[in-house]
Write a structure and sequence with these properties.
The structure is a single chain. The protein folds into 2 domains: 345 residues, no CATH class; 124 residues, Nucleic acid-binding proteins (OB fold (Dihydrolipoamide Acetyltransferase, E2P), Beta Barrel), CATH 2.40.50.140. It has 14 helices and 22 strands. β20 and β21 form a beta hairpin. α1 packs antiparallel against α13. It starts with 16 loop residues before the first helix and ends with a helix.
């Protein structure tokens, strides 16, 4: 027995793809009337009780299609003679706390959602559009409430001091990453040209200094391309591409990391309650798997020492430019623990920071709103800071929003898988190139070059012989031919089947590293033979001895 609670339409229709994931994972996608009413009644915050930053050229730099603008920045040379070659960096963040009082209907709904969720065809926002796309958004030419941090750095990019300010700003320009990068590369347009010398060049000068500090700190330097799915007007996949990673992206990231560190440090110094962003080091088991993968690729990750990101960066550097670069980057990522929120500080392993908090995206993350309220309370800026109940429930809030973040990540991944399957559905029967990205008892996973999609080659369909899975070396070994299938090998596959509603992609393996699979005597169709073939045994033993020697 059951009842229909919602109709999503044809499950194979393009516009149903993200809706399936939204409902499957229980992401709230409509706001209660009381929340919408409360948001609609809000008026723009004025200058009362705030510093006036309206003449400061704080610009926003975002994706070209961004609807909400959390952050703006400005930098200039430090005129202090004691800080020769230093810079002053300003980062201004939307003052969401001014519009979302603790305990209000808006607050309860934002906390319930925990974060915004992003899909190729839609955004499920944490806050109603009246706030996220209007009053809180740092729009061009419009006065907007903000919490800003002024940071003084030296010529080596090290932060010397910082201070927080509650202000009213007015951004002179909302620019996108591509046009900012083009301007710095000597191709300014009508929008960026007036800001090139007074704003953009000083921003990049400060960024160059921060890069020096980054090289010393050695945060984890993963190099994984970000996929971009482009849809047409009816929601069908038009293209799948990989985004170029520009210095403009890195600049904003470095500024935001610095501002987040400043927020964490200030609240620590003032003994204020907050939510830290915690990232613990990898487990020994996952590190062993990464080490085995590296050794199979002819690379080395040292053992028997306290793990630091510098050790992992050394491995990533060894892999750079080789056929196994993507595999090592992906395996390193998979060896990482999931970051989470906590009222207790355990540091951030990936960023190589002792203390870290999220401050820079309060429109789309509830954690940042909590940090903003804590800053308001710590500075005595008003009565819209952390409430006693907020403080009492910090542990519960941290666990909840860590879970909503994971929920959104899974829903976004499932949606991407379904879109990719739909995109590939017209290529069934065709040959594609990829690389072995995963090996298990039931088959191998191949990451396809043209889309980055992962497809499964079932064990029963591999060649014409039984393949033995060796857990220690993470390889498949042919019973008759002794052929070895290992991570990182180039693979030619035939697209056998796709199921867009589930995102499933089935492949048939045709060749490895350009050579067709050799023929065995018999196809066991996925059944284990009564005795393990002696050739597979010998090959596995040989690989194990090699691994043991390299470990010692």
């Amino acid at each position: 027995q059951g009842r229909i609670i919602s109709r999503l339409g044809d499950p194979s229709a393009p516009k149903a793809v993200s809706l399936i994931a939204i409902h499957e994972h229980g992401i709230p996608d409509s706001f209660p009337d009381a929340v919408v009413t409360e948001a609609d009644e809000k008026k723009a915050v004025g200058l009362d009780g705030r510093e006036d930053f309206r003449e400061m050229p704080l610009i926003t730099i975002d994706p070209w299609d961004a609807r909400d603008h959390d952050d703006a920045c400005y930098a200039h040379e430090d005129t202090d003679p004691r800080n020769k070659g230093g810079h002053i960096i300003w980062v201004a963040i939307a003052d969401v706390a001014a519009y979302v009082p603790a305990g209000s209907a808006l607050d309860h709904e934002a906390k319930k959602r925990g974060n915004s969720s992003y899909f190729p065809d839609r955004v499920v926002p944490m806050l109603p559009d009246r706030l996220s796309g209007d009053l809180c958004s740092l729009k061009e030419g419009v006065p907007r409430a903000c919490i800003a941090v002024r940071m003084q750095i030296n010529a080596k990019g090290e932060k010397i001091s910082h201070s927080f300010h509650r202000a009213l700003m007015r951004s002179p320009a909302s620019l996108n990453y591509e046009e900012v990068q083009a301007a710095i590369d000597g191709r300014p347009n009508l929008r960026t040209n007036p800001f090139l010398k007074p704003v953009l060049q000083p921003l990049y000068a400060a960024y160059a200094a921060l890069l020096e500090a980054r090289r010393v700190r050695q945060p984890l330097e993963l190099n994984l391309p970000e996929r971009q799915i482009t849809l047409d007007e009816v929601g069908k996949v038009q293209s799948v591409n990989f985004k170029d990673r520009l210095d403009a992206h890195r600049l904003i990231e470095e500024f935001m990391v610095l501002a987040n560190v400043a927020a964490s440090e200030t609240l620590n110094e003032k003994a204020s309650s907050l939510l830290f962003r915690v990232h613990e080091e990898p487990s020994p088991e996952k590190l062993d798997h990464l080490r085995d993968t590296a050794q199979a690729a002819g690379l080395n990750l040292a053992k028997g020492q306290v793990l630091k990101t510098a050790h992992l960066n050394r491995l990533l550097s060894q892999a750079e430019g080789t056929d196994c670069a993507e595999l090592i980057n992906m395996t390193t990522l998979r060896s990482m623990t999931q970051a989470y929120y906590s009222p207790q500080n355990f540091g951030h392993f990936g960023l190589a920071l002792r203390s870290y908090a999220h401050f820079t995206s309060p429109i789309r993350r509830y954690s940042d709103l909590v940090v903003h309220r804590s800053l308001v309370s710590a500075h005595g800026w008003g009565d819209d800071g952390l409430s006693p109940r907020d403080i009492e429930e910090l542990d519960k809030t941290a666990a909840h929003i860590s879970e909503t973040e994971r929920r959104s990540m899974v829903a976004e991944r499932d949606t991407t898988d379904r879109y990719l399957a739909a995109f590939l559905s017209e290529q069934v029967g065709g040959e594609l190139e990829g690389r072995v990205a995963g090996i298990a008892k039931f088959g191998i996973f191949v990451k396809l070059d043209n889309s980055g999609a992962d497809g499964l080659v079932p064990m029963r369909s591999i060649g014409s012989e039984y393949f033995h899975y060796d857990r220690e070396t993470n390889t498949l070994i042919g019973s008759d031919t002794g052929v070895i299938i290992s991570l990182g090998q180039r693979a030619t596959v035939r697209l056998a089947e796709v199921i867009p509603t589930t995102g499933g992609i089935a492949l048939e393996l045709l060749a490895l590293d350009g050579a067709a699979l050799p023929k065995g005597r018999k196809n066991f169709a996925g059944r284990n033979p009564r005795r393990k073939p002696t050739k597979a045994k010998r090959q596995a033993a040989k690989l194990k001895r090699k691994v043991k020697r390299s470990r010692s």
